[in-house]
Amino acid sequence: LEADVAVINTNSRAEDPDKACEKVRQALRSLAGRLIYKKIDSTLRGNIGVELEVAMEELACKKAVVAPAFPAAGRTTVAGVLLVGGIRVAETQFANDPVSQVQESHIPSLLERSTKRRVGCVAVEHINRGPRALYREISGMPQDIVVCDATAQFHLTCIVQAAALAKGSWLLCGSAGLARELHLLLTKVPTRVSRLKASSLPAGPALAVVGTRNEVAANQLLKARHELGLPILNLEVERFNQGNALSEGIESILREADRLLGQGRGLALCTTFSRYVPTLRQSIPTVMAEAVAAILARHNLVGLFLCGGDIAAEVCRRLSVSAIRVHGEVEPGVPIGE
């Protein structure tokens, strides 16, 4: 890989733990010699513990420092407990995630149940003393895995600065919040991403493709329809449960998309309001990607908004997107590019 920064999506969140571990192991071996960051979900979904253990074994690191907080997105960690909007994550909608339920809010307990390693915790009081003090605190702890509390972005900055003092002997593990500070570890620093103003973006109808059943996404779709008049085309996934229904289903989607796009206000294509069918989890992204490709071939749209990792990846694959040049972000954690 020739890029300065490479991201490998193992797509292992919903995998069997053994298969997830093998995917992570292969990804790490393909990145030999690079600075490694272990990305995890900011709401603790997936095979976090076993994947972290594999990464530690492959990299032979002295410590793994875990900080999944993303304060700008409402994710904070207090006393080792992950909070979403101030509520323990296992008491939020993520406890009922159809693919990967979250049943534990206390990160050390979650990791201790799925690894053979001892897990410690560092409170914000230690982080507030600065990176050198934090480096000494973590270095002196007997545990292999250290969970760091964080309630503000500067706490994550301090964690990365402390990791820099460890000179590569620590593995950093976290969400997009901690990843925002990784430039502090790089000798060749990428241009810092800026927030883009709406006035700088092209005007005209766009296509939003939403493949998540997240409650927040559902509320945002309804708000967009109510306040912006954005039409919503929700796919009833049950119709694709038959072998010959794919082509007929795409044609039906296109006819309705043509009608709605004729209103000139763009379109939201989603599965957010349909019943979850576990047996269709693998096929729905394919169906949506085919529909998106067909819609884009027939309509001149100024932008494409992708929400939901499986959907975003499959749409990019179907459109032969090999890379995205990032220009900035419209909200924290929401990049924009071409």
Describe what you observe in this structure:
It is a single chain. With 338 residues, the protein is α/β, with parallel strands linked by helices. It is 36% helix and 17% strand. The chain contains 11 helices and 14 strands. Helix 1 packs parallel to helix 2, helix 5 packs across helix 6 and helix 10 crosses helix 11. The two termini are 21 Å apart. The mean pLDDT is 89.
Separation, N- and C-terminal Cα atoms: 21 Å
- Beta-strand segment tally: 14
| Alpha carbon gyration radius | 21 Å
Class based on secondary structure composition and strand pairing: alpha/beta
Write the element-wise H/E pattern from the N-terminal end onward: HEHEEEEHEHHEHEHEHEHEHEHEE
Largest sheet: 5 strands, parallel
Shape: elongated
Query: Strand portion, in percent?
Result: 15-25%
Helix content: 25-40%
Flag low-confidence runs. none
Strand order, sheet with most strands: 1-8-2-7-6
Q: What's the mean pLDDT score?
A: 89
* DSSP summary: helix tally: 11
Q: What's this entry about, in short?
A:
The protein is of the alpha/beta class and 338 residues long. The chain has helices at 17-30, 48-59, 107-114, 124-127, 131-139, 153-165, 176-179, 215-228, 245-261, 284-298, 309-318; strands spanning 37-39, 63-67, 75-78, 81-84, 87-88, 119-122, 145-148, 170-174, 207-210, 232-234, 267-270, 304-307, 326-331, 334-337.
List keywords for this structure.
single chain, 338 residues, alpha/beta, 5-stranded parallel sheet, 4-stranded parallel sheet, 11 helices
